[in-house]
Amino acid sequence: MIARDRDSIRVQTAVGELLALGGPDGPDRVTLSIRPEQMRLLQPGSDGPTNRLSGCVAETTFLGEASEHVLLVNGHRIKLVNTPPQFDPPAEMTVGFDPKDVIILPPS
Q1: Cα separation of 98 and 36, whole Å?
Q2: How far is CA 68 from CA 60, 76, 94, 98, in A?
Q3: What is the pTM of this model?
Q4: Using H for helix, E for strand and C for coil, what is the string for 16-59?
Q5: Which domains are present in the chain?
Q6: pLDDT tens across 49-92, in order?
């Protein structure tokens, strides 16, 4: 964890710094989860959500009304689901998601 405000925490992760709402008091380490369908493909230079990740597209699977993409971000695989499907994905993508969509899992 990097910093805590009254309503949010800023966490340094293997894929970059992320902002999440809420969170437990006290622990130095937390586990974060983001559902693949909460991530949105961002256009270069666009404004958007606070949290952003950029990476190379490693895999693309078409799911009918959506497409699933796996990005390599700092050597880690990040999955996102894009609706409508992205038929010709670029070699690199930037995705964004809101702090409210970052789930802080309880310590185990």
Answers
A1: 12
A2: 6, 16, 14, 19
A3: 0.85
A4: EEEEEECCCCCCCCCEEEECHHHCEEECCCCCCCCEEEEEEEEE
A5: 3-105 (2.40.50.100)
A6: 889 999 999 999 999 999 999 999 999 999 999 999 988 899 99
